[in-house]
Amino acid sequence: MKSGFVGIIGRPNVGKSTLLNSILGEKIAITSDKAQTTRNAIRGIYSHMEDDQCLCQLVFIDTPGIHKPKNALGSYMTDTALNTFKEVDTIIFMVDSPLEDRNSGDRYILNALEKVDTPKILVINKIDKIEPDTFSSMYKEYEEMGLFEEIIGTNALEGKNVDVLLKKLEERAEEGPMYFPPDMVTDHPERFLVSEIIREKLLHYLNEEVPHGVAVEIESFDESGKVTKINAAIYCEKQSHKGIIIGKKGHTLKGIGMAAREEIEALLGCKVYLELFVKVKERWRESTLAISNFGYN
Ligand SMILES: Nc1nc2c(ncn2[C@@H]2O[C@H](COP(=O)(O)OP(=O)(O)OP(=O)(O)O)[C@@H](O)[C@H]2O)c(=O)[nH]1
Ligand SMILES: [Mg+2]
Known about the structure:
alpha/beta; Rossmann fold; GMP Synthetase, Chain A, domain 3; seven-stranded mixed beta sheet; three-stranded mixed beta sheet; 10 helices; binds guanosine-5'-triphosphate; binds magnesium ion
């Protein structure tokens, strides 16, 4: 059989996590329309089965968007993405718009990519939003760089051309072992996935700086009864943010809790009682110790 590790890298918000979910046909990675959604390397396992046999297993690593860090959390995120370059057999570099000014984030990543000899595939995502002429000129510009083995246009949200990408990756994969059981989609513990679902709802319900400054910590996870009881703390950076998260008469937090619970129930396949608390930890994103305590280490 064939197997290999594939890293998905790019600027924030280009659709990396959406692509991972589309490949797996299951939601493992949280997504949002806000930049810097993903904070850790998220592993998703794709096993191509035929007649009970695994023909190819690809372990995808979805990474945080590479950006100019403004705090310790941002540095951790960007380092996580850049370190993936060395750990994988193939790099998918994802973009969603043409290369523009000289100092654009994509140019920064391209410079870093030039320094590694890992095979690279360029994915131009969001083709539904790119004019055909623009797509052609993007294709040409990237092709002329001679850095990429393949260039593929996708619409990750609707799964368009994701099969083409998978086929190319499978063709390129080399003989190798099965790293995970073929029915395993991710090796992240349920606790982590649950905390991410809560964080995703925070990103959906809140605006501007507030969701970027939150961390979710699962304080207890009790599966002993018929209903799984989960207590989670939402940490934010300011007292004023705490007020925003809770909302008038607690409406915002209630909405977040309801949306999260529904998805957690689907994930765990059982009824869930979810209790959320909001706490303040000032400027936690600037402290290496604090970010490490929240699992960003
Ligand atoms: N129109 C369109 N939107 C897309 C497509 N792929 C992803 N999106 C949207 O783009 C936004 C960002 O998607 P994510 O998957 O969270 O992006 P990301 O690259 O993982 O972002 P970070 O984790 O912040 O680095 C979401 O609102 C997605 O629904 C696409 O092909 N077309
Ligand atoms: Mg992401």
